C-alpha cells in the first residue's frame, strides 16, 4: 500500500466546516447575482414599456396643446365677430335715432307760430320735450295734430302748467 505523505503544514489547511460555509456563500452569491440579473432585466423592460407610454402621453399632450391653440384662435374670432355685431347694432340704433330726430322735427314743424320748445331730450328709447304755448287754441290744435298722427306709439303728458300771463307749458314723453 501506498503511504500518503503530506509535506504541507497542517495549520494552513482549511477546516471542512469553513469549506462548506465558503461553498454556501458562493452559491448564495450566484443566486443573488441571478436575482439581480432577472430583476434588473425586468426593470429595464419596465422602463422601455413606460417610456413608450410616456411618448404616447407626450404626443397626446401636444395634440391637446394644438387643439387649445386652435380653439383660442376660434374664440378670438368669435369675440371679434361679437364686437362687430355690437357695432352693427350701434349703427342700426343710430339709424333709428335719426328716424326719431326726423319725427321730432316733423312735430316741431307743426307747432303754431307763437309757440316754442323750451327743452328737448332725445335718446334711443324715448324723447322728452317741453313746449310753451301762448294760447289755449294753439295748444289744443297742436295736441289734436299730435294725437291724430301716427309717428308715436306712446304719448305721455307729464306736465301741463298754466302761468298767470295766459301761457301754457306742457312736457311730453314720446315713445
How would you describe this protein?
The protein is an alpha+beta fold and 175 residues long. The chain has two domains: 16-101; 110-174, Dodecin subunit-like (2-Layer Sandwich), CATH 3.30.1660. 61% of the residues lie in helices and 17% in strands. It has a four-stranded antiparallel sheet with strand order 1-2-4-3, with helices on one face. A hairpin with a 5-residue loop joins strand 3 and strand 4. It is rod-shaped and about 170 Å long. It comes from Candidatus Woesebacteria bacterium RIFCSPHIGHO2_12_FULL_41_24. This is Fimbrial assembly protein.
Secondary structure topology:
Blueprint: H1 16-109, E1 116-122, E2 127-133, H2 136-148, E3 155-162, E4 168-174
Antiparallel strand pairs: 1-2, 2-4, 3-4
List keywords for this structure.
single chain; 175 residues; alpha+beta; Dodecin subunit-like; four-stranded antiparallel sheet; 17% strand
Measured as a percent range, the helix fraction is: 55-70%
Show unreliable segments. Answer: none
Give the overall shape: rod-shaped
Main β-sheet: number of strands, strand sense, barrel status? 4 strands, antiparallel
Coiled coil: 54-91
Transmembrane segments: 28-49
Keywords: Coiled coil, Membrane, Transmembrane, Transmembrane helix
Protein name: Fimbrial assembly protein
Amino acid at each position: 500500500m501506498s503511504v500518503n505523505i503530506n509535506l504541507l503544514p497542517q495549520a494552513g489547511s482549511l477546516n471542512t466546516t469553513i469549506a462548506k460555509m465558503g461553498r454556501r456563500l458562493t452559491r448564495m452569491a450566484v443566486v443573488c447575482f441571478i436575482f439581480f440579473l432577472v430583476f434588473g432585466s425586468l426593470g429595464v423592460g419596465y422602463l422601455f414599456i413606460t417610456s413608450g407610454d410616456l411618448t404616447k402621453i407626450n404626443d397626446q399632450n401636444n395634440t391637446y396643446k394644438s387643439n387649445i391653440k386652435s380653439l383660442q384662435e376660434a374664440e378670438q374670432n368669435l369675440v371679434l365677430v361679437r364686437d362687430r355685431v355690437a357695432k352693427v347694432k350701434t349703427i342700426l340704433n343710430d339709424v333709428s335715432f335719426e328716424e326719431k330726430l326726423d319725427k321730432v322735427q316733423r312735430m316741431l314743424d307743426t307747432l303754431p307760430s307763437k309757440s316754442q320748445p323750451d327743452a328737448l331730450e332725445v335718446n334711443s328709447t324715448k324723447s322728452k320735450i317741453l313746449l310753451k304755448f301762448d294760447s289755449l287754441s294753439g295748444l289744443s290744435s297742436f295736441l289734436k295734430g299730435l294725437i291724430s298722427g301716427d309717428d308715436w306709439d306712446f304719448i305721455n303728458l307729464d306736465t301741463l302748467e298754466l302761468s298767470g300771463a295766459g301761457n301754457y307749458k306742457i312736457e311730453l314723453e314720446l315713445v
